[in-house]
TrEMBL record:
Positions of transmembrane segments: 6-27
Organism: Brevibacterium linens
Keywords: Coiled coil, DNA recombination, Membrane, Transmembrane, Transmembrane helix
InterPro entries attached to this UniProt entry: DNA_recombination_RmuC
Name this polypeptide is given: RmuC-domain protein
Residue ranges, compositional bias (Basic and acidic residues): 373-398
Domain of life: Bacteria
A single GO BP: DNA recombination
Biological classification of the source: Bacteria, Bacillati, Actinomycetota, Actinomycetes, Micrococcales
Protein function: Involved in DNA recombination.
Record family assignment: Belongs to the RmuC family.
PANTHER family: DNA RECOMBINATION PROTEIN RMUC
Region of interest (Disordered), ranges: 370-398
Length: 398
Protein backbone atom coordinates (compact mmCIF):
# COMPACT_ATOMS: atom_id res chain seq x y z
CA UNK A 1 0.00 0.00 0.00
CA UNK A 2 3.01 2.38 0.49
CA UNK A 3 4.26 1.85 -3.05
CA UNK A 4 1.13 3.06 -4.78
CA UNK A 5 1.10 6.50 -3.29
CA UNK A 6 4.79 6.92 -4.04
CA UNK A 7 4.20 5.94 -7.62
CA UNK A 8 1.28 8.21 -7.72
CA UNK A 9 3.41 10.96 -6.32
CA UNK A 10 6.15 10.24 -8.85
CA UNK A 11 3.65 10.12 -11.63
CA UNK A 12 2.05 13.32 -10.41
CA UNK A 13 5.45 14.88 -10.17
CA UNK A 14 6.31 13.72 -13.68
CA UNK A 15 2.97 14.93 -14.93
CA UNK A 16 3.58 18.19 -13.19
CA UNK A 17 7.01 18.41 -14.78
CA UNK A 18 5.52 17.60 -18.18
CA UNK A 19 2.76 20.13 -17.65
CA UNK A 20 5.28 22.65 -16.47
CA UNK A 21 7.44 21.94 -19.49
CA UNK A 22 4.42 22.17 -21.75
CA UNK A 23 3.33 25.36 -20.07
CA UNK A 24 6.90 26.72 -20.31
CA UNK A 25 7.03 25.76 -23.95
CA UNK A 26 3.71 27.31 -24.58
CA UNK A 27 4.66 30.41 -22.64
CA UNK A 28 8.05 30.66 -24.44
CA UNK A 29 6.38 30.14 -27.77
CA UNK A 30 3.79 32.75 -26.94
CA UNK A 31 6.48 35.15 -25.78
CA UNK A 32 8.54 34.49 -28.92
CA UNK A 33 5.51 34.96 -31.10
CA UNK A 34 4.64 38.20 -29.37
CA UNK A 35 8.18 39.41 -29.80
CA UNK A 36 8.08 38.37 -33.44
CA UNK A 37 4.79 40.17 -33.90
CA UNK A 38 6.21 43.20 -32.15
CA UNK A 39 9.27 43.14 -34.40
CA UNK A 40 7.07 42.64 -37.45
CA UNK A 41 4.90 45.56 -36.39
CA UNK A 42 7.98 47.67 -35.86
CA UNK A 43 9.33 46.62 -39.25
CA UNK A 44 6.03 47.43 -40.94
CA UNK A 45 5.91 50.75 -39.13
CA UNK A 46 9.50 51.46 -40.13
CA UNK A 47 8.76 50.42 -43.71
CA UNK A 48 5.70 52.64 -43.78
CA UNK A 49 7.70 55.50 -42.30
CA UNK A 50 10.47 54.94 -44.84
CA UNK A 51 7.90 54.87 -47.64
CA UNK A 52 6.43 58.15 -46.42
CA UNK A 53 9.88 59.63 -46.08
CA UNK A 54 10.73 58.43 -49.56
CA UNK A 55 7.57 59.99 -50.93
CA UNK A 56 8.34 63.17 -49.01
CA UNK A 57 11.89 63.17 -50.34
CA UNK A 58 10.64 62.60 -53.88
CA UNK A 59 8.12 65.44 -53.45
CA UNK A 60 10.88 67.63 -51.99
CA UNK A 61 13.15 66.70 -54.90
CA UNK A 62 10.41 67.53 -57.40
CA UNK A 63 9.68 70.80 -55.61
CA UNK A 64 13.43 71.54 -55.51
CA UNK A 65 13.59 70.93 -59.26
CA UNK A 66 10.66 73.23 -59.85
CA UNK A 67 12.15 75.84 -57.54
CA UNK A 68 15.49 75.48 -59.33
CA UNK A 69 13.77 75.88 -62.72
CA UNK A 70 11.92 78.93 -61.41
CA UNK A 71 14.93 80.41 -59.66
CA UNK A 72 17.19 80.05 -62.74
CA UNK A 73 15.73 83.07 -64.70
CA UNK A 74 15.31 84.90 -61.43
CA UNK A 75 18.98 84.39 -60.67
CA UNK A 76 19.90 85.66 -64.15
CA UNK A 77 17.64 88.66 -63.61
CA UNK A 78 19.20 89.26 -60.22
CA UNK A 79 22.63 89.06 -61.80
CA UNK A 80 21.64 91.52 -64.51
CA UNK A 81 20.12 93.75 -61.86
CA UNK A 82 23.35 93.65 -59.90
CA UNK A 83 25.34 94.50 -63.01
CA UNK A 84 22.94 97.36 -63.79
CA UNK A 85 23.19 98.59 -60.24
CA UNK A 86 26.98 98.52 -60.44
CA UNK A 87 26.85 100.38 -63.76
CA UNK A 88 24.43 102.93 -62.33
CA UNK A 89 26.64 103.33 -59.32
CA UNK A 90 29.63 104.01 -61.54
CA UNK A 91 27.56 106.44 -63.65
CA UNK A 92 26.28 108.23 -60.56
CA UNK A 93 29.80 108.45 -59.21
CA UNK A 94 30.99 109.96 -62.50
CA UNK A 95 28.03 112.36 -62.58
CA UNK A 96 28.62 113.35 -58.98
CA UNK A 97 32.27 113.94 -59.81
CA UNK A 98 31.37 116.11 -62.81
CA UNK A 99 28.71 117.86 -60.75
CA UNK A 100 31.22 118.62 -58.04
CA UNK A 101 33.57 119.99 -60.68
CA UNK A 102 30.80 122.11 -62.17
CA UNK A 103 29.73 123.30 -58.73
CA UNK A 104 33.30 124.34 -58.06
CA UNK A 105 33.41 126.14 -61.41
CA UNK A 106 30.08 127.82 -60.65
CA UNK A 107 31.37 128.85 -57.26
CA UNK A 108 34.36 130.50 -58.92
CA UNK A 109 32.09 132.18 -61.45
CA UNK A 110 29.81 133.30 -58.63
CA UNK A 111 32.76 134.84 -56.84
CA UNK A 112 33.85 136.62 -60.01
CA UNK A 113 30.24 137.71 -60.60
CA UNK A 114 30.04 139.07 -57.08
CA UNK A 115 33.26 140.96 -57.64
CA UNK A 116 31.99 142.30 -60.97
CA UNK A 117 28.65 143.20 -59.40
CA UNK A 118 30.44 144.98 -56.60
CA UNK A 119 32.59 146.85 -59.11
CA UNK A 120 29.48 147.73 -61.15
CA UNK A 121 27.66 148.90 -58.04
CA UNK A 122 30.62 151.05 -57.05
CA UNK A 123 30.79 152.46 -60.57
CA UNK A 124 27.05 153.20 -60.65
CA UNK A 125 27.30 155.03 -57.36
CA UNK A 126 29.01 157.77 -59.33
CA UNK A 127 26.67 160.16 -61.12
CA UNK A 128 29.20 160.60 -63.94
CA UNK A 129 29.48 156.85 -64.51
CA UNK A 130 25.70 156.46 -64.53
CA UNK A 131 25.45 159.18 -67.13
CA UNK A 132 28.13 157.54 -69.27
CA UNK A 133 26.30 154.22 -69.04
CA UNK A 134 23.04 155.83 -70.15
CA UNK A 135 24.77 157.51 -73.11
CA UNK A 136 26.37 154.21 -74.17
CA UNK A 137 22.99 152.47 -74.04
CA UNK A 138 21.45 155.28 -76.08
CA UNK A 139 24.16 155.07 -78.75
CA UNK A 140 23.80 151.30 -79.04
CA UNK A 141 20.05 151.51 -79.55
CA UNK A 142 20.43 154.22 -82.18
CA UNK A 143 22.99 152.19 -84.09
CA UNK A 144 20.85 149.07 -83.77
CA UNK A 145 17.98 151.02 -85.36
CA UNK A 146 20.16 151.44 -88.47
CA UNK A 147 21.10 155.12 -88.05
CA UNK A 148 24.63 156.26 -88.87
CA UNK A 149 26.64 158.70 -86.72
CA UNK A 150 27.28 162.16 -88.19
CA UNK A 151 24.77 161.28 -90.93
CA UNK A 152 21.55 160.44 -89.16
CA UNK A 153 22.42 161.58 -85.64
CA UNK A 154 24.99 163.59 -83.70
CA UNK A 155 26.00 163.48 -80.05
CA UNK A 156 26.83 166.32 -77.68
CA UNK A 157 25.53 169.00 -80.06
CA UNK A 158 25.62 172.52 -78.57
CA UNK A 159 23.01 175.19 -79.22
CA UNK A 160 22.61 178.70 -77.81
CA UNK A 161 19.26 180.20 -76.76
CA UNK A 162 18.66 183.29 -74.65
CA UNK A 163 22.34 183.53 -73.88
CA UNK A 164 22.47 179.98 -72.51
CA UNK A 165 24.26 177.03 -74.02
CA UNK A 166 22.29 173.82 -74.30
CA UNK A 167 23.92 170.49 -75.04
CA UNK A 168 21.63 167.42 -75.17
CA UNK A 169 23.05 163.92 -75.37
CA UNK A 170 21.87 163.29 -78.94
CA UNK A 171 20.12 164.98 -81.86
CA UNK A 172 18.46 162.74 -84.47
CA UNK A 173 18.05 164.26 -87.93
CA UNK A 174 14.67 163.81 -89.61
CA UNK A 175 14.02 163.79 -93.37
CA UNK A 176 13.47 167.31 -94.60
CA UNK A 177 15.68 168.97 -92.00
CA UNK A 178 13.80 168.24 -88.76
CA UNK A 179 15.46 167.12 -85.52
CA UNK A 180 14.48 165.09 -82.45
CA UNK A 181 16.31 165.91 -79.23
CA UNK A 182 17.12 162.99 -76.90
CA UNK A 183 18.57 163.26 -73.40
CA UNK A 184 19.56 160.17 -71.36
CA UNK A 185 18.77 160.03 -67.66
CA UNK A 186 19.65 157.25 -65.21
CA UNK A 187 17.75 157.67 -61.91
CA UNK A 188 19.46 154.93 -59.91
CA UNK A 189 20.30 156.58 -56.59
CA UNK A 190 16.99 155.82 -54.88
CA UNK A 191 16.91 152.27 -56.27
CA UNK A 192 20.46 151.50 -55.11
CA UNK A 193 19.73 152.88 -51.64
CA UNK A 194 16.63 150.72 -51.49
CA UNK A 195 18.57 147.61 -52.55
CA UNK A 196 21.14 148.18 -49.80
CA UNK A 197 18.53 148.79 -47.05
CA UNK A 198 16.90 146.19 -44.84
CA UNK A 199 13.55 146.48 -46.63
CA UNK A 200 14.28 146.89 -50.34
CA UNK A 201 10.65 146.41 -51.37
CA UNK A 202 9.22 149.17 -49.20
CA UNK A 203 6.89 151.78 -50.69
CA UNK A 204 9.21 154.57 -49.58
CA UNK A 205 11.94 153.41 -51.97
CA UNK A 206 9.49 153.35 -54.92
CA UNK A 207 8.23 156.84 -54.16
CA UNK A 208 11.79 158.17 -53.85
CA UNK A 209 12.64 156.64 -57.23
CA UNK A 210 9.52 158.17 -58.82
CA UNK A 211 10.31 161.58 -57.34
CA UNK A 212 13.89 161.36 -58.69
CA UNK A 213 12.57 160.66 -62.20
CA UNK A 214 10.03 163.50 -61.87
CA UNK A 215 12.89 165.87 -61.03
CA UNK A 216 14.65 164.82 -64.24
CA UNK A 217 11.45 165.41 -66.21
CA UNK A 218 10.97 168.89 -64.73
CA UNK A 219 14.63 169.76 -65.39
CA UNK A 220 14.36 168.70 -69.05
CA UNK A 221 11.10 170.58 -69.51
CA UNK A 222 12.67 173.76 -68.13
CA UNK A 223 15.50 173.61 -70.72
CA UNK A 224 13.05 173.66 -73.68
CA UNK A 225 15.46 171.99 -76.08
CA UNK A 226 12.93 172.16 -78.93
CA UNK A 227 13.31 175.95 -79.03
CA UNK A 228 17.10 175.76 -79.33
CA UNK A 229 17.03 173.64 -82.52
CA UNK A 230 15.40 174.53 -85.81
CA UNK A 231 12.49 172.43 -87.11
CA UNK A 232 12.32 170.40 -83.90
CA UNK A 233 8.98 169.01 -82.62
CA UNK A 234 7.67 170.55 -79.41
CA UNK A 235 8.98 167.77 -77.18
CA UNK A 236 12.18 166.24 -75.89
CA UNK A 237 12.77 162.52 -75.43
CA UNK A 238 13.90 161.47 -71.94
CA UNK A 239 15.65 158.12 -72.40
CA UNK A 240 15.70 155.75 -69.41
CA UNK A 241 18.32 152.99 -70.00
CA UNK A 242 16.23 150.09 -68.65
CA UNK A 243 12.54 149.24 -68.80
CA UNK A 244 12.61 148.28 -65.12
CA UNK A 245 13.47 151.81 -63.96
CA UNK A 246 10.60 153.32 -65.94
CA UNK A 247 8.05 150.65 -64.98
CA UNK A 248 9.00 150.90 -61.29
CA UNK A 249 8.54 154.68 -61.33
CA UNK A 250 5.22 154.37 -63.18
CA UNK A 251 4.05 151.73 -60.69
CA UNK A 252 4.77 154.06 -57.76
CA UNK A 253 3.30 157.11 -59.51
CA UNK A 254 0.74 156.05 -62.17
CA UNK A 255 0.42 159.60 -63.53
CA UNK A 256 4.11 159.72 -64.39
CA UNK A 257 3.61 159.45 -68.19
CA UNK A 258 0.80 162.03 -68.24
CA UNK A 259 2.83 164.41 -66.10
CA UNK A 260 5.80 164.15 -68.48
CA UNK A 261 3.68 164.58 -71.62
CA UNK A 262 2.08 167.66 -70.08
CA UNK A 263 5.56 169.17 -69.90
CA UNK A 264 6.48 168.14 -73.51
CA UNK A 265 8.75 165.36 -72.26
CA UNK A 266 8.39 161.87 -73.76
CA UNK A 267 9.62 159.13 -71.42
CA UNK A 268 11.18 156.36 -73.52
CA UNK A 269 12.50 152.99 -72.48
CA UNK A 270 14.89 151.06 -74.80
CA UNK A 271 11.94 149.28 -76.44
CA UNK A 272 9.87 152.41 -77.15
CA UNK A 273 12.89 154.40 -78.27
CA UNK A 274 13.89 151.62 -80.66
CA UNK A 275 10.41 151.73 -82.23
CA UNK A 276 10.65 155.51 -82.62
CA UNK A 277 14.10 155.34 -84.21
CA UNK A 278 13.07 152.47 -86.51
CA UNK A 279 10.25 154.70 -87.76
CA UNK A 280 12.71 157.55 -88.34
CA UNK A 281 15.04 155.20 -90.25
CA UNK A 282 12.13 154.00 -92.41
CA UNK A 283 11.13 157.60 -93.23
CA UNK A 284 14.72 158.40 -94.15
CA UNK A 285 14.89 155.40 -96.50
CA UNK A 286 11.62 156.44 -98.14
CA UNK A 287 12.89 160.02 -98.48
CA UNK A 288 16.11 158.73 -100.03
CA UNK A 289 14.07 156.61 -102.44
CA UNK A 290 12.00 159.66 -103.41
CA UNK A 291 15.17 161.66 -103.98
CA UNK A 292 16.62 158.84 -106.06
CA UNK A 293 13.43 158.57 -108.08
CA UNK A 294 13.52 162.30 -108.84
CA UNK A 295 17.15 162.00 -109.90
CA UNK A 296 16.32 159.04 -112.13
CA UNK A 297 13.48 161.06 -113.69
CA UNK A 298 15.82 163.96 -114.37
CA UNK A 299 18.46 161.68 -115.87
CA UNK A 300 15.82 159.94 -117.99
CA UNK A 301 14.62 163.26 -119.36
CA UNK A 302 18.15 164.35 -120.16
CA UNK A 303 18.96 160.98 -121.75
CA UNK A 304 15.87 161.05 -123.93
CA UNK A 305 16.67 164.55 -125.17
CA UNK A 306 20.19 163.44 -126.03
CA UNK A 307 18.81 160.40 -127.85
CA UNK A 308 16.77 162.80 -130.01
CA UNK A 309 19.92 164.73 -130.85
CA UNK A 310 21.74 161.48 -131.63
CA UNK A 311 18.91 160.37 -133.95
CA UNK A 312 19.10 163.64 -135.89
CA UNK A 313 22.83 163.06 -136.36
CA UNK A 314 22.18 159.49 -137.51
CA UNK A 315 19.57 160.71 -139.99
CA UNK A 316 22.00 163.25 -141.45
CA UNK A 317 24.68 160.54 -141.70
CA UNK A 318 22.20 158.30 -143.55
CA UNK A 319 21.29 161.10 -145.98
CA UNK A 320 24.96 161.82 -146.50
CA UNK A 321 25.59 158.13 -147.25
CA UNK A 322 22.75 158.14 -149.79
CA UNK A 323 24.25 161.18 -151.54
CA UNK A 324 27.63 159.46 -151.54
CA UNK A 325 26.09 156.40 -153.22
CA UNK A 326 24.50 158.61 -155.87
CA UNK A 327 27.79 160.43 -156.46
CA UNK A 328 29.56 157.07 -156.69
CA UNK A 329 27.11 155.76 -159.25
CA UNK A 330 27.46 158.92 -161.36
CA UNK A 331 31.21 158.52 -161.18
CA UNK A 332 30.99 154.86 -162.25
CA UNK A 333 28.67 155.79 -165.15
CA UNK A 334 31.04 158.48 -166.30
CA UNK A 335 34.00 156.11 -165.90
CA UNK A 336 32.34 153.44 -168.01
CA UNK A 337 31.09 155.74 -170.74
CA UNK A 338 34.02 158.14 -170.98
CA UNK A 339 37.20 156.41 -169.90
CA UNK A 340 36.91 152.63 -169.85
CA UNK A 341 35.46 152.51 -173.40
CA UNK A 342 38.75 153.77 -174.77
CA UNK A 343 40.90 151.81 -172.28
CA UNK A 344 39.35 148.46 -173.28
CA UNK A 345 40.68 148.94 -176.84
CA UNK A 346 44.32 148.40 -175.73
CA UNK A 347 44.17 144.54 -175.69
CA UNK A 348 43.28 144.55 -179.42
CA UNK A 349 46.52 146.37 -180.19
CA UNK A 350 48.59 143.67 -178.52
CA UNK A 351 50.14 145.97 -175.95
CA UNK A 352 48.35 144.28 -173.01
CA UNK A 353 46.72 140.89 -172.74
CA UNK A 354 44.34 141.30 -169.77
CA UNK A 355 41.06 143.05 -170.13
CA UNK A 356 39.70 145.47 -167.55
CA UNK A 357 36.90 144.32 -165.27
CA UNK A 358 33.58 146.06 -165.28
CA UNK A 359 32.82 148.47 -162.41
CA UNK A 360 29.40 147.78 -160.90
CA UNK A 361 27.15 150.48 -159.54
CA UNK A 362 25.76 150.42 -155.98
CA UNK A 363 22.03 149.86 -155.56
CA UNK A 364 21.89 149.71 -151.68
CA UNK A 365 20.75 152.69 -149.69
CA UNK A 366 21.32 153.47 -146.04
CA UNK A 367 18.60 152.09 -143.73
CA UNK A 368 16.58 154.81 -142.09
CA UNK A 369 15.32 154.95 -138.49
CA UNK A 370 11.97 153.14 -138.37
CA UNK A 371 10.78 153.85 -134.78
CA UNK A 372 8.26 156.63 -134.63
CA UNK A 373 9.77 158.13 -131.50
CA UNK A 374 13.21 158.24 -133.18
CA UNK A 375 12.17 159.08 -136.74
CA UNK A 376 10.30 162.12 -135.49
CA UNK A 377 12.10 163.19 -132.32
CA UNK A 378 10.36 165.80 -130.29
CA UNK A 379 10.65 167.33 -126.89
CA UNK A 380 9.47 165.03 -124.14
CA UNK A 381 6.86 165.81 -121.55
CA UNK A 382 7.47 164.13 -118.19
CA UNK A 383 5.24 163.81 -115.17
CA UNK A 384 5.51 161.70 -112.02
CA UNK A 385 4.87 158.47 -114.03
CA UNK A 386 7.35 158.93 -116.90
CA UNK A 387 7.28 160.24 -120.51
CA UNK A 388 3.71 161.27 -121.33
CA UNK A 389 3.78 160.56 -125.09
CA UNK A 390 5.22 157.07 -124.50
CA UNK A 391 2.58 156.33 -121.88
CA UNK A 392 -0.16 157.69 -124.20
CA UNK A 393 1.08 155.45 -127.00
CA UNK A 394 0.96 152.39 -124.71
CA UNK A 395 -2.58 153.20 -123.60
CA UNK A 396 -3.77 154.04 -127.13
CA UNK A 397 -4.56 157.72 -126.48
CA UNK A 398 -3.33 160.67 -128.45
Amino acid sequence: MNAFPAAAVIIGFIVAIVLAAALGFLLGRSLTRSRYLERLTRAETTSRIMSQRTEDLEADAQMAGEITAAIGPLAASVKNLQENLHSQDRTQIEQITRLNSQIGHLSQQNLRLQESTGSLANALNSTTHRGDWGEVQLKRIVEYAGLLPHVDFDTQVSADRDGKRHRPDMVVHLPGGGTIVIDAKTPLSARMKGDSSDEPGSDTDGHDHARALLRHVDALASKEYWKAFDSSPDFVVCFVPTDGLLSAAAASYPKMIDHALGKNVVLASPATLLVLLKTVALNKRQADMSTSAAEVLRLGTELYERVGTLVSHVSRIGASLDRSVEDYNRFVSSLESRFLVTARKFPSTGIVADELDAVAELDTRARGVSAEELSRPRAMDFDDRGPTHLRDRQTGTS
